[in-house]
């Protein structure tokens, strides 16, 4: 994601530092303006950091930091915010690398993943956490027969299983299989070591169904 965003932005606007610090190179609507101002302030601070050797090198050698270098020091939340205020054409180019996702689905994935990342970073309880916003409905929701209330899916939208679905779409196949293997191992460990909660109850609190492992059986579209 870092490399794709920096590549397409640089392709459109050039590699000069002033380009990613220019509000006019984002979707600078009234709704987005405050977010863009905060984003640019974050980017400016990142260009002055002395914590990274490669940032210091580019600043001393070239007098500025290209976005493809700066992107390495940005947090996932910073990248999510930047994607949210990208021009529509850039969002589309990035999202096409994750077909069948569209830019709206990508934006929702990044938003929910950012919130879960923050929960992990702050050491908060993860398995019962729910976001306010939700990921978009995907073909996997239907193929996994996730329960619905009316037209709304009850699982895989704001819960931990939503993160698993997002990873299924965003990670390369081999990487997702490794993530799935480690997740199964961790769930098995908790089931062995924690006596006061059953496996069914644990999975339910995370938004998982018993058949969640079938997520790798289905095509993404």
Identify the overall geometry.
Answer: elongated
| Measured distance between first and last alpha carbons | 21 Å
Q: In total, how many domains does the architecture comprise? A: 2
Task: Compute the number of strand runs.
Answer: 2
Major sheet: size, sense and barrel closure? 2 strands, antiparallel
Round the Cα radius of gyration to an integer and report it.
Answer: 20 Å
SS-based class? mainly alpha
Uncertain stretches of 5 or more adjacent residues: none
**Number of helical elements:** 12
- The ordered H/E elements are HHHHHHHHHEEHHH
The main sheet orders its strands as 1-2
Beta percentage is under 5%
Fraction of residues in helix: 55-70%
Mean pLDDT figure: 96
Protein name: Abortive infection bacteriophage resistance protein
Organism: Anaerobutyricum hallii
Pfam families: Abi_2 (PF07751)
Description:
- This is Abortive infection bacteriophage resistance protein.
- It comes from Anaerobutyricum hallii.
- InterPro entries: Abi_system_AbiD/AbiF-like.
- With 221 residues, the protein is mostly helical.
- It has helices at residues 2-13, 17-20, 33-47, 53-62, 67-70, 76-84, 88-95, 103-121, 139-143, 160-170, 173-193, 199-206, and strands at residues 148-149, 152-153.
- The chain folds into two domains: 1-96; 103-214, no CATH class.
- It contains twelve helices and two strands, in the order αααααααααββααα.
- α8 crosses α10.
Quickly list its features.
221 residues; mainly alpha; 2 domains; two-stranded antiparallel ribbon; 2 strands; 57% helix; Abi_system_AbiD/AbiF-like; Abortive infection bacteriophage resistance protein
């Amino acid at each position: 994601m870092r490399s794709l965003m920096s590549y397409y932005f640089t392709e459109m606007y050039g590699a000069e530092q002033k380009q990613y610090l220019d509000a006019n190179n984002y979707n600078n609507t009234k709704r987005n303006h405050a977010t863009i101002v905060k984003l640019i302030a974050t980017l400016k601070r990142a260009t002055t950091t002395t914590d990274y050797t490669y940032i210091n090198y580019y600043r001393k050698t070239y007098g500025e930091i290209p976005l493809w270098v700066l992107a390495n020091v940005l947090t996932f939340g910073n990248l999510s915010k930047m994607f949210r205020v990208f021009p529509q054409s850039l969002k589309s180019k990035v999202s096409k690398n994750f077909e069948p996702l569209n830019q709206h689905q990508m934006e929702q994935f990044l938003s929910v993943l950012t919130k879960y990342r923050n929960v992990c970073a702050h050491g908060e309880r993860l398995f019962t956490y729910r976001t306010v916003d939700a990921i978009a409905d995907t073909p996997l929701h239907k193929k996994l027969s996730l329960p619905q209330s009316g037209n709304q899916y009850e699982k895989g939208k704001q819960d931990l299983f939503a993160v698993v679905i997002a990873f299924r779409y965003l990670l390369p196949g081999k990487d997702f299989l490794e993530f799935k293997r480690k997740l199964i191992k961790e769930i098995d460990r908790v089931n062995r070591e924690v006596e006061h909660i059953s496996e069914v109850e644990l999975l339910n609190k995370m938004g998982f169904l018993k058949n969640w492992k079938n997520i790798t059986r289905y095509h993404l579209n």
